[in-house]
Automatic annotation (TrEMBL), chains A, B:
The keyword Membrane does not apply. Pfam families: CoA_trans. It comes from Xanthobacter tagetidis. SUPFAM superfamilies: NagB/RpiA/CoA transferase-like (SSF100950). Keywords: Transferase. One of its GO terms (molecular function) is CoA-transferase activity. This is CoA transferase subunit B. InterPro entries: 3-oxoacid_CoA-transf_B (IPR012791), CoA_trans_fam_I (IPR004165), NagB/RpiA_transferase-like (IPR037171). PANTHER family: KETOACID-COENZYME A TRANSFERASE, SUCCINYL-COA:3-KETOACID COENZYME A TRANSFERASE SUBUNIT B-RELATED. Belongs to the 3-oxoacid CoA-transferase subunit B family.
TrEMBL record, chains C, D:
SMART domains: CoA_trans (SM00882). Belongs to the 3-oxoacid CoA-transferase subunit A family. This is CoA transferase subunit A. Keywords: Transferase. SUPFAM superfamilies: NagB/RpiA/CoA transferase-like (SSF100950). It comes from Xanthobacter tagetidis. It comes from the Bacteria. Gene3D superfamilies: Glutaconate Coenzyme A-transferase. Transmembrane segments: none annotated. One of its GO terms (molecular function) is CoA-transferase activity. NCBIfam families: pcaI_scoA_fam.
Amino acid sequence: MAWTREQMAARAAQQIRDGFYVNLGIGIPTLVANALPPGMTVSFQSENGMLGIGPFPYEGEEDPDLINAGKQTVTEVPDTSYFSSSDSFAMIRGGHMDLSILGSMQVSEQGDIANWMVPGKMVKGMGGAMDLVAGAKEVIVLMEHVEKSGAPKLVTRCTLPLTGTHVTDFVITDLAVFEFTKRGGTLVLKELAPGVSLDEVRAKTEAKFDVGLAN
Amino acid sequence: MAWTREQMAARAAQQIRDGFYVNLGIGIPTLVANALPPGMTVSFQSENGMLGIGPFPYEGEEDPDLINAGKQTVTEVPDTSYFSSSDSFAMIRGGHMDLSILGSMQVSEQGDIANWMVPGKMVKGMGGAMDLVAGAKEVIVLMEHVEKSGAPKLVTRCTLPLTGTHVTDFVITDLAVFEFTKRGGTLVLKELAPGVSLDEVRAKTEAKFDVGLAN
Amino acid sequence: MRKKVYADAASALDGVLADGMTIMAGGFGLCGIPENLIAGIRDAGVKNLTVVSNNCGVDDFGLGILLANGQIRKMISSYVGENKLFEKLYLGGELELEFNPQGTLAERIRAGGAGIAGFYTKTGYGTVIAEGKPTREFNGHHYVMETGLTADLSIIKAWKADKEGNLIYRKTARNFNPMMATAGKITIVEVEELVEIGELDPENIHTPGIYIDRIIVEQGAEKRIEKVTTRKREEVK
Amino acid sequence: MRKKVYADAASALDGVLADGMTIMAGGFGLCGIPENLIAGIRDAGVKNLTVVSNNCGVDDFGLGILLANGQIRKMISSYVGENKLFEKLYLGGELELEFNPQGTLAERIRAGGAGIAGFYTKTGYGTVIAEGKPTREFNGHHYVMETGLTADLSIIKAWKADKEGNLIYRKTARNFNPMMATAGKITIVEVEELVEIGELDPENIHTPGIYIDRIIVEQGAEKRIEKVTTRKREEVK
């Protein structure tokens, strides 16, 4: 049975180490914060200029000056710091974020990501995604295994405009977990969701991958 | 009679307009702060990271954490702000300083400045001088008209290693005041110190200059 | 004497607006935007503007009101997804759009204010963003050259200013405001509170007054929240 | 749990030093220098260091003690005029020296920490500083390309840290410390006071804790003043 969004987030949370500084993209990645095991010290960064993000505020305590990159109201934690957008992206681009977890429309077998633009549809913009994939020490993509149409999202080459090339380390879908041997290296299937068969994953994956399942 | 150092500084102070943000180099330029007419609002910047510099501290009140770019102890004023060296030079390089007043060993008739290095002597380094001459909106050189040896310091071409090219707007020496028509333009003699003759200035100046003395 | 304080947006904008000019506008989404100054630009009716701002407001608020009023010819932004009017104008060819990755946009503005004419970033290498731009290899990695960005006018929002223009921002309302303060030929700030010189801590001034030409105290700002997200309060034991 | 706090310089430097490494050291003159950490490096005896620092201390203090101990092979600085030993070693060919204009040095370090591989500045164009470096014209002006600078280790000085490594600096002791904090593969800070997490104002943190790996509380620092300049106290009426 395929993983739910929450289970995908929980699986991604397993990749987070104690002490990590992490940037979470919008969508499924935002669920990762709630899936962390207790007792871990992890700081979340928001690219609009905040390190150390707390939970949503209590009703009535929303502060218009305190939002995350998804424009949602959030709160401080005791070690929060605020900074400008240029300082924020200096942090991201300079390789100081341990991990960026973000959604994608396609990931190629070279680790290219396409997550910001569908030609013919209105272009919303890439926001901070190109900086995050170029800058974070580790990049995890969290996405459905296939399009609503059934088309594979793990592809030989991205057909959509790219966000970055050779930037993916880890891909977690509702069906399986993949890891790249290194940046721009080989894609390896590491885990299957419970009840999901290798054949199903093969059928729904266009990208070439090695099988490295633990037994 | 040639101007004293204090008189040179006073002449330089006349170039400062109300509201100016000014960086003063070490040596004679530091005297300019004391020569300002009362009632003017002028802020002095120090490239080690301070805007709004007060006078020297009272004896016994020196703060090792509060120095100017000449490494002298200074004080705050009510509108002081502190910032990092990169922010300080962003301010300088970005063209936000109205005026930089600095000493020099040579100035050429193209407005080139050479003020940081004498070949064969120990090299101390250029510090912030290259950034200041490249970045300030207006650059005034305050220097003796000739070397101790009698050699002219206003020269056809600088023989010493350059600090910047086409960067001088104004030159004030103990004998005279010169202005460049524009950056990289023509050098024009504007004033003579009391009792100093045009012939004396001609004799002691290698650089070609036009005479534009007020009568 | 520096006289930086103006009575309102109209007087602060007087003499600095012109058709076809480039304006940087601070804010991220609707957070930390200069509401009064945007309204002042709408009222002035100046046209054919190029606006540099991370986003373009929403349909009826923020920079959206300049769009609705037909004043913007071109946007330089990283994300404009919250604005339906934007889509309509863009698809109708009435609006030019230049996308910059958010970090590249922030850095271009910082560079513009800091006298850095160009810089090399990994961001966007191998993507459409790099097309037509010089690239260069450093230590085996590929970088794209981006250029510094300046504006004829920057309109920004801060929390507090003293009368010299020293500024502090509040929480994530800081965002693009500090860099834009440095990159405008003229910079006007809108603040919630104006204090006397000497009341701000000199160690904690986010933007030194040298960057600020004019100051107004914000009147009647809405400070709209784009996406209210909350959690339920736990039961009191 | 992040465990960033160490007992002293020796323990904080344990395992991070190696012959031939590049070290960035904060400070301007003798102001804002990490005295304990410099002494710790002297005690460790590591050799052939490349040191990036605006100055090189004085003969018997600051980085001067590493010079005197023969540990520095190369300096990258903007001004070394206060140090006679420096002159002797340099003229004797025992010391390499790379001068950077002070603003270029500051920006190279910021760039190194910010993932900017290179940038264009007007500073030094047409001078010996530009020799061998790429140049480029932007809007009719000439610029020199300078590269980002990083280090194996940065040793910096701050006023206060919380246990997460959020830092604030004091007055002009800030100088090069914030950029160097971002440009070291490992960054160790020496502070005058360590406080609990939550005690520093989140709006006024000069360096966020993400940049700080290890923290020590300074013991017995001299904080020497290079040039004491004072004025006479006015007569009390």
